[in-house]
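W.,

You were right to be curious about this one. When I first looked at the sequence I had no strong expectations either way, so I just let the prediction run and decided to look at it fresh. Below is the sequence, 105 residues in total, followed by the output.
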Amino acid sequence: MDDICRMKAEMFKALGHPIRLRVVELVADGEKSVTELVGAIGAEPSNMSRHLSVLKRAGIVSDRKEGLNVYYRLELPCVANFFTCVTDAVKEKLEGSERLLEQLR
């Protein structure tokens, strides 16, 4: 059981960076090339490569080569469902903050 928990923790760790979260959001909509990801996120190619490597090692994304291009896709569709849940929770929290700000005005 400890090994399973460690493996789960590694997957959560892989998701623990804003750039990697954004990559997952982008590839959840369909396969993207590294060039597309770099353009959409604005990260340096070498930095993007490191983040993609972390996600790939965790089994969250997979890649394929086509000529000189490398394309990434979401390997675990359930991660997109989890992101929807988390986004809803963030929206609720922000709406609660708005109500508190209104009370202060």
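Here's what jumped out at me. The chain has a mean pLDDT of 92. And, maybe more interesting for your project: The CA atoms of residues 63 and 72 lie 4 Å apart.

Coffee later to discuss?

I.
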